[in-house]
């Protein structure tokens, strides 16, 4: 894998973005699609999606596109939804908040799509979901678990993962608690990207581990456009924490590992958000040998016996000659959620779809999903670890794919 490309974010504060959303979306209120008419049965159901296919989030955004497309192809091969073929109208938001607002506004008001699916990241889904809410359209997002997503009183928003960001750390903390006290980490460092998803995971972990007596020796945020991690790595190497827990998106996770390797500092435990879930892209970036023992929390497992999981994995491998990334599975699950609600409602009616989702559980390849009134999911994540070049689930114990846990992490190769 080539070196990570520089990240060039074009980010506004969420408050400023919401003002932009309100300005653009207000004029569109009330223009959502109406119930399916009898004469529309022969027409395809058009689902609008804006994804970051270029820019900061191009890698996970492209995986989400693959997940949506595999779902579409599988559904259409079985006759479609409500007897109609499904068409995806996917546009590129270039990882930009202003663009994603304009994209969803156009999809709703000009393209008049029948349904919506979400984009990638809390940063983009925060303004995108506001556009959908203004237009009273159901918005099922595959990625976007920041707490602020669910504090706005939205009725049409649904997060199609098992849990939100602050709860992702729980399964790792529970594993630490399960260790004999003498084997628990004594010190920890918490570098994190200034990202609305990554930061809450690491903040929650730090608070919980401090309550267990794990001393914090480093806790700092770095800008999202950081590409040089030598300074962070040097500080970590000098303080020698037992645990490094990084709030990483993707390139920053690869970058920190590379810098730590250059300095020959390998912590006993390494936890990263998101980055290790990017399958072969992660292992190519850090080197397969250096994935050994890396922990992360995950919404999905390739070996799960959940609905359509085996078919999804097979279709992904056939199409892309690689193991699926978590972001592709999350997108597939989001589409499963929308499909289930539409089929149960029996009609494309946004309020009926919304009401059914608020009252029911959907079986997906991530497992069963259900939601609070805010759209926040009610479940919990899995604890995954890279072992011998592949990913194993190591917690919770009842869902583990192996009883082996690599602890401590071996040194860099």
UniProtKB/TrEMBL annotation:
Superkingdom as given in the UniProt entry: Bacteria
UniProt keyword annotations, A-Z: Amino-acid transport, Signal, Transport
First and last residue of the signal peptide: 1-27
Residue ranges constituting the Leucine-binding protein domain according to the UniProt record: 44-389
Family from the record: Belongs to the leucine-binding protein family.
Descriptive protein name: Amino acid ABC transporter substrate-binding protein
Species, as recorded: Nonomuraea marmarensis
């Amino acid at each position: 894998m080539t070196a990570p490309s520089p990240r060039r974010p074009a980010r506004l504060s969420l408050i400023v973005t919401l003002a932009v959303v309100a300005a653009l979306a207000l004029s569109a209120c009330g223009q959502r699609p109406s119930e399916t008419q009898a004469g529309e049965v022969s027409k395809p159901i058009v689902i609008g999606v804006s994804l970051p296919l270029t820019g900061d989030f191009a890698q996970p955004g492209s995986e989400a596109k693959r997940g949506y497309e595999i779902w579409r192809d599988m559904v259409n091969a079985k006759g479609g939804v409500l007897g109609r073929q499904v068409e995806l109208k996917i546009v590129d938001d270039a990882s930009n908040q202003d663009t994603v607002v304009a994209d969803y506004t156009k999809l709703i008001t000009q393209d008049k799509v029948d349904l919506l699916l979400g984009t990638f990241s809390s940063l983009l889904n925060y303004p995108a979901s506001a556009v959908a809410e203004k237009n009273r359209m159901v918005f099922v997002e595959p990625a976007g678990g920041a707490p602020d997503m669910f504090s706005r009183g939205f009725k049409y928003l649904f997060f199609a993962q098992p849990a939100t960001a602050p709860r992702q750390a729980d399964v790792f903390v529970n594993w630490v608690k399960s260790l004999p006290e003498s084997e628990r980490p004594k010190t920890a460092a918490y570098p994190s990207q200034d990202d609305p998803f990554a930061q809450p995971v690491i903040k929650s972990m730090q608070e919980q581990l401090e309550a267990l007596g794990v001393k914090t020796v480093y806790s700092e945020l770095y800008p999202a456009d950081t590409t040089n991690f030598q300074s962070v790595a040097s500080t970590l190497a000098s303080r020698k924490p037992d645990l490094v827990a990084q709030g990483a998106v993707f390139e920053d996770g690869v970058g920190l590992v590379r810098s730590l390797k250059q300095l020959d500092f390998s912590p006993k435990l390494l936890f990263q958000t998101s980055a290790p879930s990017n399958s072969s892209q992660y292992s190519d970036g850090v080197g397969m040998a250096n994935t050994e023992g890396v922990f992360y929390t995950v919404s999905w497992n390739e070996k799960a016996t959940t609905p359509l999981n085996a078919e999804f994995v097979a279709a992904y491998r056939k199409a892309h000659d690689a193991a699926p990334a978590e972001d592709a599975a999350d997108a597939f699950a989001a589409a499963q959620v929308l499909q289930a609600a539409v089929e149960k409602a029996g009609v494309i009616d946004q309020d009926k779809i919304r009401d059914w989702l608020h009252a029911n559980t959907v079986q997906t390849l991530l497992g069963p999903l259900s939601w609070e009134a805010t759209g926040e999911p009610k479940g919990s994540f899995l604890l995954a670890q890279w072992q011998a070049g592949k990913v194993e689930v190591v917690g919770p114990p009842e869902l583990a794919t192996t009883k082996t846990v690599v602890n401590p992490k071996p040194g860099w190769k």
